[in-house]
Protein 1
Amino acid sequence: MPYIKIEVTREGVTREQKTALIKGATQLLTDVLNKDPKSTFVVIDEIDTDNWGVAGETVTDIRKREV
Amino acid sequence: MPYIKIEVTREGVTREQKTALIKGATQLLTDVLNKDPKSTFVVIDEIDTDNWGVAGETVTDIRKREV
Amino acid sequence: MPYIKIEVTREGVTREQKTALIKGATQLLTDVLNKDPKSTFVVIDEIDTDNWGVAGETVTDIRKREV
Amino acid sequence: MPYIKIEVTREGVTREQKTALIKGATQLLTDVLNKDPKSTFVVIDEIDTDNWGVAGETVTDIRKREV
Amino acid sequence: MPYIKIEVTREGVTREQKTALIKGATQLLTDVLNKDPKSTFVVIDEIDTDNWGVAGETVTDIRKREV
Amino acid sequence: MPYIKIEVTREGVTREQKTALIKGATQLLTDVLNKDPKSTFVVIDEIDTDNWGVAGETVTDIRKREV
């Protein structure tokens, strides 16, 4: 009965990538803990870069400097 | 001082349904644990069907098959 | 496919009360959103009163004053 | 390696306020626990007032009465 | 900067299994989204079977029936 | 009505430090967003170092190397 929450910044994650994350996380729980995929939930939470902070600044500001 | 998070897929939950979820969850904590409704928070988190996975696939794909 | 997290202070919640919370929350999602109980998860998270703060102080300190 | 989630109602939080929340929360973990800012994550989750309940009613309804 | 929370029932997850979950989840985010492992957090939350409900009953009760 | 969750590794956080985190986080929400302290919840979640991963390994293993 695992529940997996994946939080990433909202920076163009495609539907294919979401499917791959869900498939991969579900498989991981089966491989490591022998969990039944049917009762494994995966929730992807995309966070605006204004709303995610690292080292005391927003990812928006970090990305600007990276350009 | 309970905090309740309700995560559901974003599939047309109405304002009336949200009010009913909030009222019901608050009442549940009062009935079972005698908690004060005034200090009970309920947060509803609606998740896109592309972002919720069960059994290794997205709810979007599951819904397509159900039609 | 709902997921419900109930956070309460760890103050002697009994097994019977946990069962009642789980049963009640699951029923609520069925009543309001017609969700299938079989795919409804409820997780109860008990938090030490030292670790829960309201109005800027711990519940431990609040409880002391209430005595 | 702290992770801090700040949930507030979505009521016009500005980019400057988000930056101040991220900076302040990161500083707090450094001041109190001597954590390295570089490995401190802060995530701000803005919740629609229809989706946040207090005392059994939505913040939308509470706000209406306050006017 | 991903953050991954894995919630499973507390049923004897070993240190080796935890390491495998952390390694696997971190690799998944690198493979699918090209995320830097150094800034990927994985948190495993083990939940008592009394505190996890499925289909309106605790996992403790479900496990009893399975024996 | 803010809710703040602070997740840190369980490495000897004292009661005084918890009080300081709760007081500081509550003050931050008042300073930045003018939130009422009385309706601000802060929850501290201490995570075993075996259960927290960074860069694909547990904090337990990272700490061993640091010695």
Note: Chain A touches chain E at residues 1-9, 13, 17, 20-21, 24-25, 28-29, 31-33, 35, 39, 52, 54, 59 (CB under 8 Å).
Protein 2
Amino acid sequence: MRVLGVDPGLTRCGVGVVEGVAGRPLTMRGVGVVRTPVDAELGLRLVAIEQGIERWLDEHEPEFVAVERVFSQHNVRTVMGTAQASAVAMLCAARRGIPVALHTPSEVKAAVTGNGRADKAQVGAMVTRLLRLDAPPKPADAADALALAICHIWRAPAQNRIQRAVAQNRLQQAAALHASKLASKGRTA
Amino acid sequence: MRVLGVDPGLTRCGVGVVEGVAGRPLTMRGVGVVRTPVDAELGLRLVAIEQGIERWLDEHEPEFVAVERVFSQHNVRTVMGTAQASAVAMLCAARRGIPVALHTPSEVKAAVTGNGRADKAQVGAMVTRLLRLDAPPKPADAADALALAICHIWRAPAQNRIQRAVAQNRLQQAAALHASKLASKGRTA
């Protein structure tokens, strides 16, 4: 199973690809960060994130995309950007028929370290060990993306198989439903 | 000037196209709602919104897209969906090189009714009058989308001209910058 993990953000969007199955050693296929300039217009930043995610999907052809679930208890301004970046990542995956899974930060920490409130250093150390890397991936967003992918591989493998089997079918149904609704709702003066 | 207004939402995304210039009567070119099923997966809902917005851009070829600026003082769950739907609308516009403007709800209400705290009925009544319609557009999301477009036409026409002139140029710059950054940041195992 090959999974692209995405730690969404407007300024730094962590991405990491992990391959393997639960119960066996995992392999890192790639890790990086999609960055956008802080002073660019929001629409253009979203376009840059889309282009970045598309490249990772093209290059690694993941079977699943795991995205961090966004909460809003954090800083309001940051959360909006995170929600928007995550929307672009989910959109890129879903329109290719790749199933998207959302995992909360505490689910990811618990999966990788055994502690849902582990700090960044601990997550980085476990990612390094589990993927047999020479050093923790930097920045933290990149390590978090790999942790997301590991978490996804380890959680509910049976559910993953079912989800993948129906994802293509659902995509076609949703498109057909949308087309028929749009035809009946839209009117032009 | 032809403007597509978008009142973003996951369940109902209001869209409306208005043509005209400040100081002259305005004309509605189209109004509608892009809907997505509440029980569908989030990724597929975003794909459906993308397809809907793309159709409106194809059909009406707006010179500007005006999107409601999302705040987070409202219901947390709703705000996340609104932020994600708005990201898709901004992405669709920006990757075509169409400038995107964000207006707050109170800016829109003030522009259309003279009162930044006007209620939905008042906004609907003024949209009906300003666009010389037979009845207020329904649902309220559709009327709000038209109000956004009107607001954009009336605010800062000079700024609009400048923004349009540089939008294409910026899009190319952002893509080039992104490509060079990605090349230097990403590494593959």
Note: The first strand of chain A starts at residue 2 and ends at 7.
Protein 3
Amino acid sequence: MPRYAFRIEYHGAPFNGWQRQIGQPSVQQAIEEALAKINPEEPRIAAAGRTDSGVHATGQTAHADLARRWQPFRLMEALNHHLRPLPVAITACAEVDEDFHARFSARERRYTFRLVARRAPLVHEAGLVWQVRNPLDLAAMQEGAAHLIGRHDFTSFRASLCQAKSPVKSIDEITITEQPVTGGAEFRFHLRARSFLHNQVRSIVGTLERVGAGAWAPAQVAEALAARDRSACGPVSPPHGLYLTGVTYPDDPFA
Amino acid sequence: MPRYAFRIEYHGAPFNGWQRQIGQPSVQQAIEEALAKINPEEPRIAAAGRTDSGVHATGQTAHADLARRWQPFRLMEALNHHLRPLPVAITACAEVDEDFHARFSARERRYTFRLVARRAPLVHEAGLVWQVRNPLDLAAMQEGAAHLIGRHDFTSFRASLCQAKSPVKSIDEITITEQPVTGGAEFRFHLRARSFLHNQVRSIVGTLERVGAGAWAPAQVAEALAARDRSACGPVSPPHGLYLTGVTYPDDPFA
């Protein structure tokens, strides 16, 4: 059976996350049901990142095995047709080798978190960014983030329900940028790692926001990490500022 | 009575435009009702641009006279509180002289139109940009737009219901930029003029889109303008890609 890789965008709001669960809407179910419209049996689809409820994606990657061979552009068009009107879109599609696995072949995941600091409510980007009312200090957040780069035990920064066998992960990048918006500023956190723990990105951003607000000193991020204790973490940021933006494989399936 | 100027953002979708109309939701009514919560009588508010149904704003400017003097930041906060949960936000507020008039003192209005060309549906920016499925040629659109710069009779590019006394207007700028988006490109049209006719921006963008698609030659834009005939215009673009981004006054009230 030919295997296809898909690059997928979705709005997190209407879904209880990527992963299929009985009685809850999921992105996985939406795509599997669209695939079932064009395939004799409903295929299973495996994704690089099992994003949480409310988390967005612009570069999720997944694969599925289909009964017959498709011209990739036609397959993408057919799926987008059957996905309507859900906020899920296939933006690239390619036939891949049978040893390609969207989850297990992935070498790197990239996430971006959008955080806007301003007093007035957001009207166009409601649901697309996390808004706080207090100003934030970029340099302090960058100083706090520096403590998290590299290989560490991230017990303090993972959900108590996290199922990963080990809390040790390597974070390769946390870049924070600032750009002005009317009446405030938008901060974008770009994180890159081979893989992340459950709630790791949102725990890191929620903690760094406290640093930016002046409630935490930057050095307290290092203390929280060293504590290896979930209660040492800052508040977990809400999901609607988080985007899975890309996944890297040894060979880019969409190149 | 002290006079206040307001810079206003709104999402166009829930409103039948800026201007108050019986039995239709309008941005003007929303703000006047918020003002009535903090002022003994409901004040009238006058805006620089009477945007159409569905059109967005990031820099609308308006003014109103209030019964008592306010600290501008507190006035902004009070109005944003009473505007909730409507997608309308006051992003700046200032006391101005009694001879300031948001509409009649305005020297320049600026609009931006967002147009995305790609096959896959948009999931995060649905309702915030106009999407077309065909690719667009930036250079051809720029060549077509050049014919519209300067002082012309824009009869071909205004709504048949337009109430302006004269169809002669001066367009000072039409800049078109292109940036890549996943699976396509976003084009932003920046237009600047002392004032615009009813539907003028949307008529221009809709016509230039036809040029970008290759359906019109760039020189046909000049022919359409010279025809001084509404039927010579291309299709009017939908409202949800259009933003009133700013208004210029002899003295910036928010400086």
Note: The domain at 3-105 of chain A is CATH 3.30.70.580 (Alpha-Beta Plaits).
Protein 4
Amino acid sequence: MAKPILYSYWRSSCSWRVRIALSLKNIDYEYRPIDLFSEESKVSIFQFTLRIPRFCQNDPEFVKHNPAKKVPTLVINGLSLTESLAIIEYLDEAFPDPPFLPKELDQRAYSRAIALHIVSSIQPLQAISIHKMLNEKEKRYGDFWCNHFVNRGFKALEELLIKYSGKYCVGNQLTIADINLPSIIYNAKIYNVDMTQYPTIVRIGETLNEHPKFKPAHPDLQPDAPKTTKADM
Amino acid sequence: MAKPILYSYWRSSCSWRVRIALSLKNIDYEYRPIDLFSEESKVSIFQFTLRIPRFCQNDPEFVKHNPAKKVPTLVINGLSLTESLAIIEYLDEAFPDPPFLPKELDQRAYSRAIALHIVSSIQPLQAISIHKMLNEKEKRYGDFWCNHFVNRGFKALEELLIKYSGKYCVGNQLTIADINLPSIIYNAKIYNVDMTQYPTIVRIGETLNEHPKFKPAHPDLQPDAPKTTKADM
């Protein structure tokens, strides 16, 4: 198998999920940063070739792999794969060990439901682009909006986790649900969500933070992360 | 198997997806409407018992099945299942015929990617509650917002479908991707999206509209649909 290529952006929640999945499956890959806020790819500055070239969303090489121009995009086994959860399900089917889904149908459904609650009910409403657009519309409205929707989603998530969690989101096996949790907790903190309301989310998040396969996927450790991350908000 | 119960709202995109999936799998079910815009359940008016009682989101019977208080919720085989795509994947695993996913891993990934693009990148940003909240913030801003994000999503969706579609979204087999398409086209029309820009989306949408298993899932045919649907906007 040729070395897979992951098109990623350091702070993209969806890219983070796929980095965790690749790490859990022990798949080595090449990291290619897509700068979501640049109109122009940068492979060199003056005469110096950049150690990490940064591609923009419109770069023809990137668009060839994903006409939707979104990260993450994973080039693997000759395929160009898009949408974080679809990529994660593909990785689980192509590389079954360790599994991302329990064997029992009900536990599989609960794991996917928690993943989808994060991916479709919380994340899209507090994405970086949404936050920016609403703050430009009215000063601090984006801040209010993101805080509001993360709280709305976390209230439901806390209830779901009280019902299903053990050590991890669903029982004691690490599943697709856990892969989606760290990025949304990270964002909740950026949007000043009072996490003391959500002790189950916090507990599982702390367990995942200590997991050796989760650590290398953290945004701050990516080659395109700025040195002082909070200043980028 | 006891008759499954679907908690649904006639105009909810996510409920519509599950109605299509149940119809395709030939699963008979009881329809229980959840009125997303009412604070109070109505099982009777004066001394008359309603033919179709309407439950509100806070109804204890409903909350017992889904603490996140969202539709759709499917009670089946003794389980309470939530999140439309998780329910659809469960139905596909528990009732394999006809399948919602192709056999080939790449085609499965493309089918899931199209489904997820609709479910996580388009639908959440134009949900009824978002439209209402932004129109209350500033007259017609919700209209602008929903039109903008459906167009943004449809540009990418059209590109994906040009790449992957045959008769259906991915080749000539009906998949999980198709199950998610009708509701987002229906909403696009409500938000005055110019559909002539998206001929591939339109073509597949028309094919699905004619599918006998898709027809009964249409919002206008649900027991909780008002007689004149457009007036409800």
Note: Chain B has nine helices and six strands.
